[in-house]
Amino acid sequence: MPNAIYIIDCDGIVQFKAPLNNATTTRKALQTILAGKPAKMKSYFKPATPWVVMSTAKRAGHGPGKDFVHGLSRLIWNVLIKNNIRTFLKRGNVAPCQKPEWK
Prior knowledge:
By secondary structure, this protein is mainly alpha-helical. 50% of the residues lie in helices and 9% in strands. It has a two-stranded antiparallel ribbon. 6% of the residues are buried.
């Protein structure tokens, strides 16, 4: 899930960007852009459900599970809290840009 998202139109202009993929917001942004409107929604990070985390941890074995528990506090601070605060405080999702000039 933590992949950056960029929706770029046929003219090469970024119409929507988000630092982390939130499938629901990305779908809404794409539908809004296809309807001819600007996508002004914000994409907040939503963590995986406990069931997904546990099933992934079981398949990963003991080593990665220990690493996950060890880095969990940093993960919660950097991704869940800090990133969502930054997203909340941003005024717009995409800076105004000009059409690129190709030479």
